[in-house]
Structure formats: structure tokens, C-alpha cells
Amino acid sequence: MDINGEGERIPQHRTMMHYHGDQVRAIFFMAAIVLIVAQSTGADLPLSTIGAVLTAVVLVVAAGVTNPEQSSIHWMNACLAIAGTLMFGTTAVARYRGGMSIFDFSFIYIEMLALLSLVALYFTTRTIRWMLQRSRLT
Questions:
Q1: Confidence of residue 136 (pLDDT cuts 50, 70, 90)
Q2: Helical packing angle, 49-65 and 21-40, nearest 10°
Q3: Closest Cα to residue 93, out of 117, 77, 111, 78?
Q4: Which of 4, 9, 48, 105 is deepest in the core (most CB within 10 A)?
């Protein structure tokens, strides 16, 4: 749109009832930020420094390419969410059972990453379910 209010208009965002890729995109982006902040503040993550940075890069790329037209990206998102839930979830439980305080910053970061991964898995699964049902109905 130009200065006089004339010209091309930006199309309205259309909503799809059971597509949750936008939420997954935001969760993956938040998880990448948490990973980088946690690693740079010295949190004891179950990843090396290069592993944390590479994981953050993969999450941001996955977030960037997520769209409702490609089902394969949602399967990849599900794999990333499963991997994150298993890695950070088991680490959080093991450390808590090992006596780590819930107020320890490392535990808080790991728990946040486990929960973000779990929520991303839920939304990704709902999107995959919607895509599978949509393909059967058409």
C-alpha cells in the first residue's frame, strides 16, 4: 500500500481449524532462544556447546519452513519434538531424582525445554491428524 492508501493490499490471514503449524513455529523459535541463553549462561545441558547451537539452528530452520502445504515438514517437526521431549524430559527427571533443586537454573532450563518440546509434539500431532483426515475427505 502506498502513502495515499492506494495500491496492493496484504491478504488477510486465513485460519484453518486444526492447523497448528504457527504455534509449533513459535514454540521451536522459543526453544532455540532458550537453548542459546541456557548454553551461554553455563547451564548444564545434555548437549555440548556445538550440539546446543546446531540444535537451535535446526529448530529455527524447521520453524522457518513450516507451512500448511507440505506434510513432510510436520513429520520432521514431530521427530524433532519427540527427540526434544525424550532428551530433555529424561534429563529433567533424572536430575530431579538425583537431588537437583528445582530452583537450579540448569534444571529450570532443561524443564522448560522438555515442556516446550512436549507442547510442540502435541500441536504437531494435531496438525498431522488434520492433514491425514483432510486428505481422506477430498
A1: confident
A2: 160
A3: 111
A4: 105
Question: Alpha-carbon torsion 57, 66, 26, 86, what sign?
Answer: negative
Q: Which of 13-17, 113-117, 121-125 is least confident? A: 13-17
Grid cell for residue 43: 547451564
Residue with cell 530452520: 61
Question: Contact at 8 Å (CB) between 60 and 28?
Answer: yes
Letter string b/e over residues 101-110, b meaning 16 or more CB atoms within 10 A of that residue's CB: eeeeebbbbb
Q: What share of the chain in percent tops pLDDT 90?
A: 77
Intra-chain end-to-end CA distance of the chain, in Å: 37
- The 8-class DSSP code of residue 5 comes to S
